[in-house]
Amino acid sequence: MSTQDFARRPSISRRGLLAGTAATAAALATGAATTGTAHAAPRTFASTPDGFASVNALGQNGTTGGAGAPVVTVSDADTFLDYCDRNEPYTIQVQGTINITSKQALRSNKTVVGLGANATIAGGGLDMYRRQNVIIRNLRFVGAEDDAISVQQDSHHIWIDHCYFADGLDGAIDIVRAADYITVSWNHFDGFDKSILIGHSDGNASQDTGKLRVTFHHNYFDGSRQRHPRVRFAEPVHVYNNYFRNNALYGVASTENAGVLVEANYFENVPHPVYSGYDESGPGRVVERDNVYAGSGTPQTLGTVVEPRTYYAYTPDNPSTLPSTVPAGVGTGKI
Question: Where is the Pectate lyase domain (predicted)?
């Protein structure tokens, strides 16, 4: 697959975007913004992933999860974990609250989807170790004593969509140890501390370089403190059309020569929206373009990054619409 680099482009100022009423009207007309306007049609959400989870690679034709497989509905932990640990494909529908501990195995070729707005995984999380073709949607993850979702050790083609994360003791999502081709979309990270980590340590360059390709779009980082995401070695990581609000430590950090594109996001009251390098980790390459910075600091940038369009097509929404459209569309009960 060929690659193409691009240079840094200037960001769009908040004043300039908010003055662009014609652009906003056009976005509303196409359904890019769906709240606060009586004439706007409700936004419909895709039933299949876009971004890196949609790419045909590693012998996998996109990410389909348990499509075409038996559908089961579970409402207790023992039954839920039994189906998660089976080798056969399934669509596992979660009803009510499932109380588990630690990180529990989720095998390949599964769709795990909540029913309604309140399906919850409480106390523990899901772990994918050398797995592929998994979809996790419409679930609340609360009070996890470890990571809520862990994607690791060469796992690939994972789609995490329309979930809610709160009150975890470690990370909401970890993507580490050469995991690849992942999309994280339309999720609500509510007050989380360590939201998302890509690349687990500074000493893992040989395993992670050339892997860890992840798309983040239309996520709501709502009072969460850091790691939105924090990235090591991966390229490209594509962070676009997310709404960052009141993130006390920082927004995005590219470290250890990672390549991150931060594009068409809305940063509100974020003192350090983008870092190159963080803590003891060396600098990463990071390009920002077309972002809005409202009450926020100046982003750090460095070098060039592989263009995500060499892998997949996408059309960003007007970032000025994100404070309305993202909170209205994220989390459970929307699909």
Answer: 67-273
- Among candidate residues 140, 177, 213, 227, the one labeled active-site is 227
Which element (helix H / strand E) includes 117?
Answer: none
28 and 325 Cβ atoms separated by less than 8 Å:
no
What's the pTM?
0.89
- At residue 28, what are phi and psi to the nearest 5 degrees? -65, -40
- Report d(CA 48, CA 242) in Å as an integer: 19
Q: Which residue has the tokens 């070729």?
A: 109
Is residue 227 annotated as a catalytic residue, yes or no? yes
Q: With a cut of 60, say whether residue 37 has pLDDT above it.
A: no
Burial of 210 (0-12, 13-18, 19+ CB in 10 A): exposed
The two three-digit tokens of residue 180, written as one number = 């690849």
Angle at 276 between CA 273 and CA 278, to 5 degrees: 90
> Whole-angstrom Cα distance, residue 254 to residue 91?
35
Report CA torsion sign: 292, 300, 263, 153: negative
Contact 170, 203 (CB under 8 A): no
**Residue 190: beta bridge partners?**
222
Among 186, 194, 183, 189, CA closest to 146: 194
Max CA pair span of the chain: 55
pLDDT digits (tens, 9 = 90+) for 54-104: 999 999 999 999 999 999 999 999 999 999 999 999 999 999 999 999 999
Strand order in the sheet with 180-185: 71-74, 90-94, 110-114, 132-137, 156-161, 180-185, 214-217, 237-240, 259-263, 285-289
In angstroms and rounded to an integer, the radius of gyration of the C-alpha atoms of the chain is 19
Look at the block and give the residue holding tokens 């850091």. 226
Nearest to 157 by CA among 234, 86, 87, 62: 62
How many whole angstroms separate alpha carbon 57 and alpha carbon 21? 41
Q: Is the pLDDT of residue 42 over 90?
A: no
